[in-house]
Amino acid sequence: MVALLLPSFISFIIFAGATASQWSYLRAVASKWSYSTKDNWDEEYPKYCAGYRQSPINIPTRETSWKWLGTLLPLKFSGYDVEPTSMTAENNFHTLSVTPAYLRKPRIFSGGLSSPYELLNFHFHWGSDETKGSEHTINTVQYPLELHLVHKLVGQTVDDALETSQGLAVLGIFFELSSTDNPALTRLLNITSKLTTENNYTANVPKPNALSSLLPDDLSSYYRYEGSLTTPVCREVVVWTVFKQPLPVSKSQLEKLRSLKDINGEPVQDNYRNPLPLNGRRVYRSWL
């Protein structure tokens, strides 16, 4: 049962192959953890969620340390400029989880990463209003939306990566409120109304954009630290890269995310874990 309690990108892998007869069981599994008890996850899932390298964190910019991360060997992206052959979105009752398909999966490498990683999927965290939503904070300031692009070590299975130190690499990207829509989100968010019971809470995104459209222009400025998954069971196997530059998102686009319903028919919102202590960890930045 542990595997079925893993975060959104793992849940999607399981849910995507489900038949209609399996959905009632899978929905029950999805309901076993809830953001309503997020402050008690260390007690509910003590094996991992009570660890000392938990995520997310507050990033105190004046206490970060410069490291050569992006100076000599910049973080590099392969396949991010390629349009997916298809893209499937799912409401897994905790977030909007999105899995693009490729002939060759996009990869990230260099920039201080020990090995290359390949994309699994991506998902979002948002608030019930525009004053909150992101999981990471900068000097305690919270953004209204945060995107997580999840990658695993090339050559490993997901199960192996979950048992390996730095088995996963997650890119965190903030969004700030804008008076206009972000066109890179339009096609994806336009299908949120289709994520209903009748469609098994999944839908195909028409003519999906290349994932480079969801990256900031400045790929050289980011924070780096070692942490965990941000949902149960909070395994401490993640090397985090959190970009400094936010992207835009409009209020109407945030409302489309808030239109998703959870297992009880309530709006999916405030789906973020609060920052956890650093416990002596160093947070590095890639620029002087």
UniProtKB/TrEMBL annotation:
Belongs to the alpha-carbonic anhydrase family. This is Carbonic anhydrase. Pfam families: Carb_anhydrase. It catalyses: hydrogencarbonate + H(+) = CO2 + H2O. It comes from Hyalella azteca. Its EC number is 4.2.1.1. GO terms for molecular function: carbonate dehydratase activity; zinc ion binding. Gene3D superfamilies: Alpha carbonic anhydrase (3.10.200.10). The keyword Cell division does not apply. Reversible hydration of carbon dioxide. Residues 31-287 form the Alpha-carbonic anhydrase domain.
